[in-house]
Amino acid sequence: MGGKVSCTLGEVTNRADFIIFWGGNPAECHPRHFTKYSLTPKGRFVPDGRKGRTAVLVDIRETPSAKAADIFLQVRPSKDFEVLTTLRALIKDQRVDPAEVAETGLTLEQLQDLVDRMKKARFGVMFFGMGLSMTRGKHMNSGALLNLAAELNAFTKFVCMPMRGHGNVTGADVVLRYTTGYPFGVDLSRGYPRYNPGEFSTVDLLVRGDNDAAFILGADPGATMPQPAIDHLASIPTIVLDPKVTHTSRLSRVHITTAVTGVSAAGTAYRMDEIPLPLAPALQSPYPTDEDVVRRIRRAVARRPAWQPVDEDARSAIA
User: Fold this and answer.
1) At what angle do helices 80-91 and 139-152 cross, to 10 degrees?
2) Tens digits of pLDDT across the chain (319 residues)
3) Which of 26, 70, 100, 198 has the most crowded CB, counting CB atoms within 10 A?
4) Cα gap 289→301, rounded to integer Å
5) Whole-prediction pTM
6) What domains sit in the chain, N to C, each tagged with a CATH number?
7) Burial 123-148 (b: 16+ CB within 10 A, else e)
């Protein structure tokens, strides 16, 4: 994977005439996306709005978003990577075995039709969700889709963008990228960043039980992660910074209540297209901000003497 070809949501509104939603359900998860950014608004180069756009939904089952799509392609579970690999071969006019394609739940004719439509588009965009990135293949699926979008630029303009979930997830990715060079799955235990999704990703670390403590800011993994990960969080010292009581704070050792960012604390949120949005507080809060708490913890840790291994003979003598 060599990066992504992307754009802003404003460019999608004004230019996109061919839109693919892969592994996502915007009708329920991003209810204003269709009307504000992608399908129905009239743009500068798409004056007819919805009539001037073709929408494709790729998913393992028919969701409410399928009703808004012109084409619905139902892929067998965990076959996204095979479909994407086939599409990348077809856009380069390489030979593809129809029998292999049939195992994905689609036909070669359906994929060839999709390739033809993508090549004819003036400005195409692919939005992908957790249905692609959290199934078998994980980040390799996302990488294949990003490469597909990049390769389509040999024929027309195509971009790709993840449909982000919880608030400011994009912000976390952006900060990690400009500080470490990687968006997630980063390990700093050796004093420099190492990137290896599947090994250093949060879910994988917790499920394997590799970590012996957890520090959680503004997230609720206890409500969304697999049960083995939740059980491990409950068994180790877990510290939570959150304005409200959550599933995670109920199983944590320490819960520090903080001010609500954007309401009682200033900050910056990043839209899913990585546009930074400054947040100005409207109300005062008696609680400290996340930044204040983290700074205090860092100062307290810096004042402590360097950790030294305990001599077992000395421990026995004390006992």
Assistant:
1) 20
2) 467 899 999 999 999 999 999 999 999 999 899 999 999 999 999 999 999 999 999 999 999 999 999 999 999 999 999 999 999 999 999 999 999 999 999 999 999 999 999 999 999 999 999 889 878 888 889 999 999 999 999 999 999 999 987 778 899 899 999 999 998 899 999 999 999 988 998 999 999 999 999 999 988 999 989 999 999 999 999 999 999 999 999 999 999 999 998 899 998 999 999 999 999 999 999 999 999 999 999 999 998 877 665 555 544 443 3
3) 26
4) 19
5) 0.84
6) 9-162 (3.40.228.10), 169-303 (3.40.50.740)
7) bbbbbbbebbbebebbbbbbbbbbbb
Separation CA 310–CA 319 (nearest Å): 13
162 contacts 141 by C-beta, under 8 angstroms:
no
Provide CB contacts within 8 A for 95, sequence distance 6+: 89
Query: Are 127 and 9 in contact, with CB atoms under 8 Å apart?
Result: no
The token pair at 159 is 């971009």
Q: Return the closest-CA partner of residue 234 out of 225, 242, 243.
A: 225
Distance, CA of 38 to CA of 123 (rounded, Å) = 12
Q: Do 273 and 161 form a contact (C-beta atoms < 8 A)?
A: yes
Phi, psi (5° rounding) for residue 260? -80, 120
Spatial distance between the Cα atoms of 148 and 246, rounded to a whole number of angstroms: 39
